[in-house]
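hey can u check if this looks right to u? its 215 residues, i copy pasted from the old doc so theres a chance i mangled smth
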Amino acid sequence: MSNTDQLTAGEKPDDAEITLGILNAVHANERITQRSVAQDLGIALGLANAYLKRCARKGLIKVSQAPANRYAYYLTPQGFAEKSRLTAEYLSDSFRFFRSARSQCTDALHEAAARRWYRVALYGASELAEVASLCEAPGVSVVSVIDPGHGQNSFAHLPVVATLDSAGEVDALLLTTLRNPQQAYEELIAKFPAECVLVPSLLRVSTLAETEDAR
């Protein structure tokens, strides 16, 4: 898994992710170009250039001129050490995300079972939806993924539909989008009963129930 695998459309890699991506790219191919780095990491060309220069200033990579006005990039011993540190940090964050996601999605499906909501659809194709597709609760079936921008017919072995109406009969929705989940939640409850929308706390969404409780 690369450092940008967990990013979805609309999300931006942070400083540590870009740095790790740069170091991984240099380690894999010393003949990389700024353009290839930008494309691989999904960032602007100018940003790729800035990070390459920054890594060089920090002593993480060494730059030497190659034929035809090109450059070769090499990881320094300090760069290898920093790549290892960032990789361990990234994996730790990934495992924390997986554990939290699995626990919260399982709890949500058990809540659905308790309320006799047996047909649940996921709202948003994402890493969170992948985790949710693996979770179980007695009598509950995850029947589909709703995502207007996904562009594929399936995700995590589940059928994908573009709209709520296309999902057919569902008893509840589990919010799994990572692309502006607050906005997605607000748009969703305008079309679907808010009490039947399950929201994992890791999304940091202010739900209607929380808003009413605060009044």
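The chain has two domains: 15-75, 100-214.
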